[in-house]
Amino acid sequence: QVHLVQSGAEVKKPGASVKVSCKASGYTFTGYTLHWVRQAPGQRLEWMGWINAGNGNIEYSQSFQGRVTITRDTSATTAHMELSRLRSEDTAVYYCASSGNAQAAFDIWGQGTMVTVSS
Amino acid sequence: EIVLTQSPGTLSLSPGERATLSCRASQSVSSTYLAWYQQKPGQAPRLLIYGAFSRATGIPDRFSGSGSGTDFTLTISRLEPEDFAVYYCQQYGSSPATFGQGTKLEIK
Question: Which residues face A73 on adjacent strands?
Fold first, then answer.
């Protein structure tokens, strides 16, 4: 059974950074691409970036360029997404999702991680 | 960036009825790169349709996708109680991948 399990909810102050993890199991981690998508309250899903878990290639959305860093640890079959310089508008549920490659539909999703930014 | 606009915003139907959801793109999208997702409250999205027409693993055949160019449709032939949810279209052929704003399918 393919699973993506994310780390728990976070509460951060404006200006801080948050790091969310996504552990994969049940498939060959390095054979897939992992995306990060967020959903602010009442808003549409917003793609943030992806990492090729095999070769480590990365692409970020211009909307988050300079603030987001996606990494992976192949030995731990885990991907991480760090978002810096947080502001209140970053309050959202953050999801990881896997796809066969960078241009494939997102077929497996993590359960989501709520990040709240509040002073 | 390709903007996806879904209509209607809310669709009120009864179980057993047919649902037709629309997704319009601001520029042409290859059918290869158009997907539909279902999301229920408190849950992650679930892939229903990829490549505009292909059902994902385990998705019942009452769900079907169609369309090309800038206009795509998700059809649910006979609504079951578990189908009432929010549906999103997505294009993933052009970076950044983008999603529509969603159609809420509610019980009438």
Answer: A78
* Residue B31, pLDDT above cutoff 90: no
Structure tokens that stand for B72 in this block: 């795509």
| Option in B44, B95, B99 nearest A110 (CB) | B44
Q: How confident is the model at residue A102 (pLDDT cuts 50, 70, 90)?
A: confident
* Phi, psi of A62, rounded to the nearest 5 degrees: -60, -30
- Closest by CA to B52, choosing from B65, B71, B69, is B65
Give the confidence band of B3 by pLDDT, cuts at 50, 70, 90: very high
Residue A64's φ and ψ, nearest 5 degrees, are -120, 0
- Nearest by Cα to A85 from A69, A98, A96: A69
Residue in chain A lying closest to B58 (CA): A107
User: Closest to A109 (Cβ–Cβ): which among B44, B50, B100?
Assistant: B44
B35·A105 Cβ contact <8 A: yes
DSSP states of A31-84 as a string? GSEEEEEEE-TT---EEEEEEETTT--EEE-GGGTTTEEEEEETTTTEEEEEE-
For A38, nearest residue in chain B (alpha carbons): B44
Single-letter amino acid code for the residue at B7: S
Task: Please give the Cα distance from A48 to B97 (Å, whole number).
Answer: 9
Question: How far is it, in rounded angstroms, from Cα A115 to Cα A94?
Answer: 7
Give me the pLDDT at residue B25, please: 97
